[in-house]
Design a protein that fits this description.
By secondary structure, this protein is mainly α. The chain is 76% helix and 0% strand. The protein is built from 13 helices and no strands. Helix 10 runs antiparallel to helix 13. Belongs to the binding-protein-dependent transport system permease family.
Length: 314
């Protein structure tokens, strides 16, 4: 087990290094001069040159990358051009808002969709199976922004049950904060259920065709015991991998949902920073999202042996 963990940790290090290089390089392709943007249109060339020197922009790209990497390792992501705040606390606070929505949504979607997919596989080609597969296909085909707008229209405007716009921090008001998060979480749950139902069904069907399932049935075990005690654990491994991918993707791609529901999360911060050309914040957001994706999938890999002990022997 220790060898498996060390191998996964060592495999993550080159990925993190490649992510850092990619983020640094992409930011350098954005048109515009950060120094000129910080000083404004009335700045003199001498002032811009002095600011570029202060920011280290007059050095070569390899030197800039080494300086930036050393600062990031120490927790210094720079300062925002727009509001002169440290980037790391700003990005971290917005990331927590996004994580509240994404983690709860993925958890709820998994609790609903995985059993539904298992039942669909157990009742293959039945009316239940066709209904669940058809529902999953429909959910997959609905864009999240359109689904969010429909939920806003129905639950917010028509019924008036939930607020349409705004955000309240759960830390300041638990009940009020949860009310504002219901619709964005519901949007993600409905959409991601389609992926998880299909994946859980496919992996369960594959396991149900194996010889040990036939042997378990031959011993006289009930269908529920065969399904949940023997088939589910081995079938859940591939679904667990997909859950990790969904979690990582949503942490980086929740900007649309946050824009629809006006939630001040990491995706919304990234979009606003792109329009404002706030390069340090854009760089910090990209690095934070990329590292989060790598770490989430690393955790998924490390926990995978709990569902398939054969992995450790590889």
């Amino acid at each position: 087990m220790l060898k498996f963990v060390l191998n996964r940790l060592l495999m993550a290090l080159p990925t993190i290094a490649l992510v850092s290089v990619t983020v640094f390089t992409l930011i350098r392709f954005i048109p515009g001069d950060p120094a000129a943007l910080m000083l404004g249109d009335m700045a003199e060339p001498e002032q811009i040159a002095a600011m570029r020197s202060e920011l280290g922009l007059d050095k070569s790209l390899p030197q800039q990358f080494l300086i930036w990497t050393a600062n990031v390792v120490q927790g210094d992501f720079g300062r925002s051009i727009v509001n002169d705040e440290p980037v790391l606390p700003l990005v971290a606070s917005r990331f927590l808002v996004s994580a509240e929505i994404v983690v709860v949504a993925v958890l709820l979607a998994s609790l609903i969709a995985v059993p539904a997919g298992v039942i669909a596989a157990w009742r293959q080609n039945s009316l239940t199976d066709l209904a669940l597969v058809g529902t999953a296909t429909i959910l997959l085909s609905i864009p999240t922004f359109w689904l969010g707008l429909l939920l806003l229209l129905f639950f917010g405007l028509k019924l008036g049950w939930l607020p349409v716009l705004g955000y309240v921090s759960i830390g300041s008001n638990v009940t009020g904060g949860l009310v504002y998060l219901v619709l964005p979480i519901m949007t993600l749950v409905i959409h991601e259920m389609g992926v998880l139902i299909r994946m859980a069904r496919a992996s369960t069907l594959e396991v149900l065709r194996l010889d040990y399932i036939t042997h378990a049935r031959a011993k006289g075990l009930s269908e529920s015991a065969v399904l949940w005690r023997h088939a589910f654990k081995n079938a859940f491994g591939p679904t667990w991998t997909v859950i990790g991918l969904i979690l990582g993707n949503l942490l980086g791609g929740i900007a649309v949902i946050e824009t629809v529901f006006t939630i001040p999360g990491l995706g919304r911060l990234m979009v606003d920073s792109i329009f404002a050309r706030d390069y340090p914040v854009i760089q910090g957001c990209l690095l934070f999202v990329s590292l989060s994706y790598v770490l989430v999938n690393l955790v998924v890999d490390l926990l995978y042996p709990l569902f398939d002990p054969r992995v450790v022997a590889e």
